[in-house]
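Thread: GNAT family N-acetyltransferase, structure

OP (GT): Posting the sequence first so everyone is looking at the same thing. Length is 127 residues per the record. Can we get the C-alpha cells written out before standup tomorrow? I want them in the notebook alongside the other entries.
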Amino acid sequence: TGVTAGVATGVAAPEDRPVAYLLAEVVDGALHIEQVSVHPDAARRGVGRALLSHAESYASQLALDALTLTTFTEVPWNAPYYTRLGFHTLAPAALTPGLRIIRAHEAELGLDRWPRVCMRRALPDPV
C-alpha cells in the first residue's frame, strides 16, 4: 500500500525536557497520525493541538489532502477530543487499503478489545 517513511516531532518544556511527541507516516495520500502523547503535567495546555497543527502544516507541504488516525471511541481524550478538532469518523467502507492494514494490525495486537475507529480531517485547500 501507499505507506512511506515516518516523521516524528516533539515539544520541550523550558527545562528542555520533552513533554509531548507526535509520530506520523504517509498512508494512501494522507498523513496518518500514529501516536500523539502529552505528559500529564503538560495536559490541557494546547500542546496536543499544537502538534496536530504542525502535522497539518507538514502534510500541506507534502501536498497531502488529509490527516488520518485511529483511536478509541470511548476515551474522552481520544475520539471525542479529535471530533472537537474537526476529525470525523470514517465508515468501514470508506477506509483506504492502508487504513485497513493498520486496523488489522491493531486487531492482531488486541486493541480491538475496546471500540476503535478511523478518523479523518481534510486539509484546507492551498491558497
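GT: Both are above now. Quick notes for whoever picks this up: Residues 1-5 have pLDDT under 50 and may be disordered. Residues 3-122 form a domain with the Aminopeptidase fold (CATH 3.40.630.30).
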